[in-house]
């Protein structure tokens, strides 16, 4: 990250650069890259009601960045849930297999063989899950994502609210800029909802036309 980036206020109003896709945080790369638009020298101290800067590109970049943060968080959470479900199932089967191998008396050699085989697989899988650090890389990374993002975003006077899935500004950011971004965000989601409804209506119309063709 650029060393001159000290404050969220440092944004070039004429910048046309969009945010790069945030990299998923890992142990070796815990930070989330921000747009080059944050590395300029224009300060919010020059922001006034008489000569407001063109904030459209700023709002667009922020919204793109916000959407990608949400997408990355949801992706990490889904992956975490899958591994947690797998780990939970393995832990649930383990005591059952231990009972079947060491305590349950069965004269069926096939049952004994598969019980021992599945017990070996379950124990090996559980050991590999922790020895290869899969738990930290696949499960815990989802819980560390938001704190790592906010450590980076704090120097830009904002943070990512995971529960709402939105970027929230600190008080240092001018109120007028915050309200402008809120309006831009609402307008974007309104248009997005309208486009989704239009697509659904078109699909329904196509379905009705195909149904009529079959009747003919």
From TrEMBL:
It is a multi-pass membrane protein. Belongs to the CNEP1R1 family. The lineage of its organism: Eukaryota, Fungi, Fungi incertae sedis, Mucoromycota, Glomeromycotina. It comes from the Eukaryota. Residues 1-27, 190-216 are annotated as: Disordered. It is found in: Cytoplasm; Nucleus membrane. GO terms for biological process: lipid metabolic process. Keywords: Cytoplasm, Lipid metabolism, Membrane, Nucleus, Transmembrane, Transmembrane helix. GO terms for cellular component: cytoplasm; Nem1-Spo7 phosphatase complex; nuclear membrane. Residues 195-216 have a biased composition (Basic and acidic residues). GO terms for molecular function: protein phosphatase regulator activity. Residues 1-20 have a biased composition (Polar residues). Signal peptide: none annotated. This is Transmembrane protein 188.
């Amino acid at each position: 990250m650029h060393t001159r980036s000290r404050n969220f206020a440092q944004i070039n109003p004429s910048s046309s650069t969009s945010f790069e896709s945030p990299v998923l945080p890992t142990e070796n790369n815990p930070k989330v890259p921000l747009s080059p638009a944050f590395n300029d020298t224009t300060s919010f101290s020059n922001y006034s009601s008489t000569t407001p800067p063109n904030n459209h590109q700023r709002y667009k970049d922020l919204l793109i960045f916000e959407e990608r943060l949400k997408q990355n968080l949801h992706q990490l959470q889904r992956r975490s849930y899958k591994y947690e479900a797998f780990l939970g199932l393995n832990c649930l089967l383990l005591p059952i297999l231990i009972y079947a191998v060491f305590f349950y008396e069965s004269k069926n050699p096939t049952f004994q063989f598969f019980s021992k085989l599945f017990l070996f697989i379950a124990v090996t899988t559980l050991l590999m899950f922790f020895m290869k650090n899969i738990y930290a890389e696949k499960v815990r990374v989802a819980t560390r994502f938001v704190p790592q993002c906010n450590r980076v975003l704090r120097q830009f006077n904002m943070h990512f609210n995971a529960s709402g899935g939105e970027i929230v500004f600190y008080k240092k950011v001018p109120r007028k800029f915050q309200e402008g971004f809120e309006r831009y965000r609402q307008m974007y989601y309104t248009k997005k909802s309208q486009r989704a409804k239009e697509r659904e209506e078109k699909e329904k119309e196509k379905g009705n036309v195909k149904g009529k063709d079959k009747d003919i």
